[in-house]
Design brief:
Structural class: alpha/beta
Shape: globular
Largest sheet: 6 strands, parallel
Helix content: 40-55%
Number of helices: 9
Strand content: 5-15%
């Protein structure tokens, strides 16, 4: 099983939105309109920074992204974990299921959060973006997670992606992997319709994964 992080394991909306607002303020830009969470929860952050700032120059985008990353680190205390998800991941691991993380979040942050949630030992693979978000393509991240699982001798023939955005569905589809869309995240009904399965809550997800 491959899990997304933001919107699937953790609720990081307040952290990410706050960091984007502070970034814009640092740059002297108007406060961004973040009323539509689908525009910034899920896409690679460099795409979001480019959209909010209107910058096209690579150096300017990287400077703005650096400001965002600094504020994100400052606001991590705002992140919480969705009830029941940690317990489900632990039960999957205890049942002998290969579990991997495939997140567009920076790998350093993802690993720290797994430590905070006491989940590091439950994951057989952890794949994420580089520190500058350069590797935030979801299909590529999923490929890295699969490679890690195979390197450990884990069977990936029945892999399922669990996520909350179309990026998860499309990234998994690139590897012929079905996706279970979770309703508690940041996606839309239209995005859910593109997934092979849908879980309205953690109890329903548990039933799909463990029977």
């Amino acid at each position: 099983m491959l899990f997304d992080m933001d919107g699937t394991i953790s609720d990081s909306l307040d952290c990410i939105a706050g960091a984007l607002r502070l970034m814009a303020a640092d740059l002297g830009l108007p406060e961004p309109d973040l009323s539509d969470v689908t525009t910034f929860m899920g896409p690679p952050m460099t795409d979001t920074v480019r959209r909010i700032t209107g910058f096209t120059d690579t150096v300017e985008i990287e400077r703005a992204s650096g400001l965002y990353r600094d504020h994100h680190d400052e606001l991590e205390y705002l992140v919480s974990v969705y009830p029941g998800v940690v317990e489900l991941i632990c039960d999957l691991h205890d049942a002998g299921v290969a579990v991997g993380l495939a997140t567009s979040k920076r790998i350093r942050i993802a690993r720290r959060w797994l430590d905070d949630y006491h989940l590091t030992g439950e994951f057989d693979a952890v794949a994420g973006a580089s520190e500058t978000q350069a590797g935030a393509d979801k299909a590529g991240i999923i490929a890295e997670a699969l490679d890690q699982l195979r390197a450990k001798g884990r069977d990936t023939s029945r892999t399922v992606m669990i996520g909350d955005r179309s990026h998860d569905v499309e990234g998994a589809a690139a590897h012929s992997i079905p996706t279970i869309y979770v309703d508690w995240g940041y996606g839309t009904a239209a995005e859910a319709a593109t997934a092979a399965y849908r879980a309205h809550d953690v109890t329903e997800l548990r039933g799909l994964l463990l029977g």
